[in-house]
Write a structure and sequence with these properties.
This protein is an alpha+beta fold. Helix content is about 70%, strand content about 10%. It is built from eleven helices and four strands; from the N terminus they run H-H-E-H-H-E-H-E-H-E-H-H-H-H-H. The chain has a four-stranded antiparallel sheet. Helix 7 runs parallel beside helix 11.
């Protein structure tokens, strides 16, 4: 009987404040969708880092004849074979090095032609202008500075470059988008909480006579508050459900179909459906608990009979 009464009170409250309840659902849905999207964006950046950092190399560029005339680090002339072989031998002795590969000037020229053969500058570049390099694959890409410190000042070495820097701007952009999404999510969350508190306040005020009678006949404070808390929790649960749908639809249209980023950016290792599904229970739990807690706190102030 008590459960039936609580459920009937929830229905009455939702019907009386239908417009505000709808606003709560929308604001909770948007804030939680942004929250889930931010979590997925962070996981995407982490996945891309793990994927690409495992493939990028540290490149030790050796001096050539052109560098000897223009670069101060190559003032002693082009790198000799003995210098290159000594660099390779020293690299292979380092525990952090997984593999070492020597790229000749001709190989560098061929790679350059493959990538930039259609540009105007490619027609005037010659093989002797390209630099020999030693490509180093590290067991831990984060230890790039160990290689840079050991070889940057050596004779015959023009520069030491970490290819991760090429990707860092992309990761910084994605992290910036993630922070922006979290900022908007925070704003929407504040709006949602204000709407929940206001909705509970209006509902409690409109039913102050019923709650007064319940108090007089001996009903506990928790029993009186339960319908209001469950109203807020139900609205939040609906908002969380809508947020889950938005995340699923967003993953479907952005990556698999519609925009189909997976087809257009095949070199990017996108997160799978398992990552999205793993976030849904958290979104639902927050959608359920956040309004309920907000309503409980609001009732302590506004439900005084």
């Amino acid at each position: 009987m008590r459960a039936q009464f609580v459920l009937s009170e929830i229905g009455v409250g939702l019907r009386r404040n239908l417009t505000m309840t709808f606003a709560v659902i929308v604001s909770v849905a948007l804030s939680l969708a942004l929250f889930g999207g931010a979590l997925l964006m962070r996981e995407q950046v982490s996945t891309m880092k793990d994927y690409w950092y495992d493939k990028v190399n540290v490149s030790i560029f050796l001096c050539n004849k052109a560098d000897a005339a223009t670069a101060a680090k190559c003032s002693k002339g082009a790198a000799t074979r003995q210098q290159r072989e000594q660099i390779e031998a020293d690299l292979k002795k380092m525990d952090i090095v997984e593999s070492v590969h020597h790229e000749t000037a001709d190989e560098a020229f061929n790679h350059y032609k493959q990538q930039y053969g259609d540009t105007a500058i490619a027609s005037v570049v010659t093989p002797d202008q390209m630099q020999e390099s030693v490509r180093v694959k590290l067991k831990d890409p984060e230890k790039y500075k160990v290689v840079a410190t050991a070889f940057a000042g050596r004779d015959g070495v023009e520069s030491v470059q970490d290819q991760r820097n090429i990707l860092q701007n992309l990761f910084d952009l994605m992290n910036g988008m993630n922070i922006a999404a979290l900022g908007v999510m925070g704003l929407m969350l504040v709006i949602a909480l204000m709407l929940i508190v206001n909705t509970v306040r209006v509902s409690a005020f409109s039913r102050r006579r019923e709650t007064g009678i319940m108090r007089l006949v001996g009903a506990s404070s928790f029993y009186i508050q339960m319908p209001f808390i469950m109203e807020a929790a139900f609205a939040g649960l609906l908002g969380g459900g809508v947020a889950c749908v938005l995340l699923l639809v967003g993953r479907y249209f952005l990556i698999d179909h519609g925009i189909a980023l997976a087809d257009k950016m095949q070199l990017v290792n996108f997160i799978g459906w398992d990552a999205v599904l793993a976030k849904l229970p958290l979104v639902i739990a927050i959608g359920l608990l956040m309004p309920a807690v907000a309503a409980f706190i609001a009732l302590r102030k506004y439900l005084k009979v």
